[in-house]
Predict the structure of Lipoprotein.
Amino acid sequence: MLKHPVICLLALLFLSCTDAPQSPDPENTEVYLCDSPAAYSYHFNPNCKGLQQCKHNIYKTSLKTAKKHGRSFCGWEANDTIAR
């Protein structure tokens, strides 16, 4: 009878130690922005289709700053993430 709870605890410990996807750290994660007044997205990938359409300067900043200025995650990258 005691074996089952021990096995369950070991399984739980094993699963909690596996590489689970982590949310990006907004302070340390760098993102790319288009410096256009009409731009509204941030990009993790500097070669993103959405960012390639930028006719202004492209610059790097923190995810926290991008969100503070009302930027949202790029739709092109979001679709690529879902497709995987």
